[in-house]
Amino acid sequence: MGALPLFLVGLAFSIAAFITMKFPPKKINGIYGYRTARSMKSQENWDIAQRYSSRLMLKQGLGILAIAGLLNVLPLPEEVAAIISVALLILSVIVLFVQTEKKLK
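RESULT FIELD:
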C-alpha cells in the first residue's frame, strides 16, 4: 500500500484547489468555499479567503504529492508511512486554517 493514501490526499487537495481557483464562489454561502466566521464576515473577507486558501491548498497538495512519491521509494515500514501520512494531513489542514485566518486579520 505504501504512500497511496497520502498520494490520494495530495491529489484531492490539488483538485479541490484547482476547482476553487477556476470557479471561486462569488457570494458568501454555507456550502462551497473556505467557510469560517471571519471569512463570512464581509464580501471582502470572503473574496480574500477564497483566493488565498485555494492558492495555499494547491501548494500543499503539490507538496503532499511530492512527499508521497518520496515515501513510496523509501524503505519505510507501512505503519511509519501511515503515521507520517496522517500527521502530514493534519498539519496541512491546520496550516491552511491558521495562515488563511492570519491573512484575514
